[in-house]
Amino acid sequence: MDVIELFKKLVSTKSETPDDGGLLDFIAEYLEDFTAVRVDRNGVKNLFIYKKFGEGEHLCFAGHVDVVPAGEGWESDPYTATERDGYIYGRGTQDMKSGVAAFVQAVKEAKDFNGTLSLLLTSDEEGEATDGTVIVLEYLREHGMLPDACVVAEPTCEDVFGDAIKVGRRGSINGYLKVKGKQGHAAYPEKAINPIHLMAKPLSKMAGVDLDDGDEFFAPSKFVVTDIRSGMQVTNVTPNELNMMFNVRNNTKTDQESIKAFIAKHLEGIEYELRLTQGSYPFQTDTDTKLVKKIDEAIEKVTNIRPKHSTAGGTSDARFIAPMGVDVIEFGVKNDTIHSVNERTTKQEVESLYRVFATLIENWESL
Question: Domain of 257?
Fold first, then answer.
């Protein structure tokens, strides 16, 4: 089986979160000379599979086999890898069965590596991610098996294959704000405290505002309002409270305390309650590390493109790997149809991604 045949096999297997569709068992059988460890929990399937070639460093490839639901309106069966007009269509073609196929084939064909090669795969990345990569990492830490470096094969390229890798990610802070008022009759506003009116002026100074200036790797942290609700859907009663939700994709310059201070500054004199949750924390891998240099050179060798180093976009399971002290980057195919109807990638991109990973493995010491 070559990388394209493997890719089509993965895409043609339905594996909506947290179902792996049997793919982790298949991969364990496909890599028959690797040692497989299953760390399943609460219906989530997780596989750590490794082979020790020598006493050198431990290089891991990580990813997920689960996909989001297909949705309606596809021009072909989303769970059949369909070639059309130079593309391969199917749910997960970009996010991220292309990446999984590429690194599975690359490690399978690896002949000589002075260290350990491993894969970390989960069926719970597109969901809550509470029983996925994070618990495998806990297992690896407990058993002294954490890798030295890790490549997460999420789709990262922007305009052409090879043009971007992720060397970090912003964090994600969710906010839940309740502004308190006093319900009353709309005809007697002086007898009520209208929380909508209270928020009208400060909101214009908060919504969409940059909380910092960003830096070389990170865009500014922006205060993004995602939902506002108040009132009883009638015209003659002013509301008792207003509830607002917001999100801040934060860099290293903004944290929960600075968000609290930002809100306190703009809501001075207004009674409110605030709750913040942190879905992920920002991280950035030093671009002088071996991993970044090696992947840069492997990409350039295959594509003749020197990739830019980016931290843009949402979150990935790299957010769990970096805090373990593991150097981590993300690299995969173009990201322009993920989660959409008629998700697609090209055969050339999948083959090129496989060659990049094979080159990285082959030249880990000498490149």
Answer: 172-280
